[in-house]
Design goal:
single chain, elongated, 2 domains, five-stranded antiparallel β-sheet, Alpha-Beta Plaits, 13 strands, 10 helices, CinA
Length: 273
């Protein structure tokens, strides 16, 4: 029997019926808005949050402008609530447009101050760099006053102000920093099943809507089988991939069985997709 994919969480989270925490990602990057850089951080973070059983509700991309950062951080922080998580990426480097620390601080009525452990780690790291410590580089240790920090393998910590987690923009650093602190982010398990069918989306739309309406606590997604460049199919054995997700494992299993039978489909291992 095919297993249903479940978020890997501590037992305390698996036994609770409380609402799942919410999350948002704020990408701070002019280079993303102008098309110079492709944002991969939000995609990776979304997968981590699913794995942790946390509901990602919004991803926004904003410019390196203080007013935009302050207003967006305030809005997202309020939206996810005290039990939620807001992740910012980008804007914590040494140049003039790296203003995330001071902007997040301002959003909460705080100033910035040198974080002793961060400054010490930075000073050690700069001994190996041409030019050594500069005023611009030293700014990278100016964190929101009184913030908490999560330790990482780098001299740069994850600075935490209330429910906001401040990350760099470099994808490899984002992944390393969050992976090493993954247990910090606790949600409520999400179960996923996948059904593949040869039927086309247009042919199953009405019946699929009826199934969705009958199960409001289950999220059903429908995806056309295309290659990444959308020029053809990846696998001619199916035309449509249906995902069934929810926090009730029994209901996810029942709905996926119903969909597989209704559309002459096949349940497949969700861990492979």
């Amino acid at each position: 029997m095919l297993r249903i994919l479940r978020a890997s969480l501590p037992s305390r989270a698996m036994s609770t019926l409380k609402p799942a925490p919410r999350a948002a990602v704020c990408v701070i990057a002019n280079e993303v808005l102008t098309g110079k850089t492709l944002d991969t951080n939000s995609h990776w973070i979304s997968k981590l949050l699913f794995r942790r059983g946390i509901d990602l509700k919004r991803v926004v991309v904003i410019p390196d402008e203080q007013e935009a950062i302050v207003s967006t951080v305030k809005e997202l922080s309020q939206m996810v609530g005290a039990s939620g998580y807001v992740f910012t990426t980008g804007g914590i480097g040494p140049t003039h447009d790296d203003i995330t620390y001071e902007s997040v601080a301002k959003a909460f009525g705080l100033g910035v101050e040198f974080h002793e452990a961060t400054l010490k780690g930075l000073e050690e790291a700069m001994k190996q760099r041409p030019g050594g410590m500069t005023e611009g580089r030293k700014r990278m240790a100016l964190l929101p006053a009184g913030c908490k920090t999560l330790t990482t393998e780098f001299w740069t910590p994850i600075a935490v102000v209330e429910n906001v987690y401040i990350l760099p923009g470099i994808p490899s650093m984002v992944r390393s920093m969050l992976t090493s602190n993954e247990e910090h982010f606790v949600g409520v398990p999400i179960f996923r099943a996948i059904v593949k069918t040869l039927k086309l989306e247009g042919d199953i739309a009405a019946e699929l809507t009826a199934v969705q309406n009958a199960h409001p606590n289950i999220a059903i997604g429908s995806y056309v089988n295309l290659t990444k460049d959308e020029t053809g199919v990846r696998d001619t054995s199916f035309n449509t991939r249906l995902t069934i997700e929810g926090r009730d494992e029994v209901e996810v299993n029942e709905v996926s069985d119903e969909i597989a039978k209704l559309f002459d489909g096949e349940k497949v291992d969700p861990s492979e997709h």
